[in-house]
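Suppose you are handed only these lines of text.
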Amino acid sequence: MKDYDYSFIPADAYTDADRDAITGLWLSVWPDHSREYYGEKMARTAEISGELPAGYPVFRVKDAAVAAALIFPREIRTPRGSLTLMALSGVCVRSDLRGQGLGAGVVRKAFSFVGQGLYRVSLFQTSYRVAPFYESLGCRRVDNPFINSLTPDKADPEALRRSVFWDDVVMIYPAGFDWPAGQIDLCGPAY
Ligand SMILES: CC(C)(COP(=O)(O)OP(=O)(O)OC[C@H]1O[C@@H](n2cnc3c(N)ncnc32)[C@H](O)[C@@H]1OP(=O)(O)O)[C@@H](O)C(=O)NCCC(=O)NCCS
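From them, the structure of the protein bound to coenzyme A can be written out as follows.
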C-alpha cells in the first residue's frame, strides 16, 4: 500500500479534480452509467447533512483514483426502532490493480469509522461472488426483508429498481453487531 496515497475526501468538500478521479474510477468499473450520473450521485451525497462522517476513502496514484468507496449516514427503521448506520457503496479497485490488498485497504479505512465508535454498524449490498471478500474483513450476511417507505416516483422504473437493495447479498459490519430481525425500512433509496 506504500505506493498509493490515501486520503478521506469529505462528501461536501471535494474539488473538481477529486470528482473527476472518483467518477472516472467508478465509470471504468461500472460503465453502465455516465460520468454525469456519478457526478450527480456525488452532488446529492454532498447535501446529506449531519455530524457523522460522510465521504470517500480513496487511494491514488498521482491524480488517478485507483481504489475508492463512499460512506454516508442513513437513519433506518427496524422493529426495535430507529438506527443510524453507515451506508457503504461504490467499493472498487481499478481492474489492473486488483489482488494486492487495495480493496481490503479501502474497506478497512471505511470501517475504521465504525471501529472509532463514530458509527455503530455498517450496512451494504454486494454480490455472491464478492461476499467472501467482505466476510474475510469481519462482515456477515443478514436476511431481513427490506422496504423503502420513501420510494420517490413509482412511475420511474429505474427509481423503483433502486428503491431497495438490488444485489444478491446484504451484509453488516461488524459481524458481531446485535442486528435486529424482521423488516427493515431503508427510509430512502438503496445504495
Ligand atoms: C471486490 C474488490 C473491491 C476487491 O478488491 P481487491 O483489491 O482485488 O481485493 P484485495 O486484494 O484487497 O483482497 C483482499 C482479500 O479478499 C480476497 N478477495 C478479493 N476479491 C475477492 C472475491 N471477488 N471473492 C472472494 N475473495 C476475494 C482476496 O483473495 C484477499 O484474500 P487474502 O487476504 O486471503 O489474500 C475488487 O475485486 C473490485 O473492485 N471488484 C469489482 C467491483 C466490485 O465488485 N465491488 C464490490 C461492490 S460491493
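What can we learn from it? The pocket of coenzyme A is lined by residues 29, 91-93, 98-104, 126, 129-130, 132-133, 136 (CB under 6 Å). The two ends are 27 Å apart (CA to CA).
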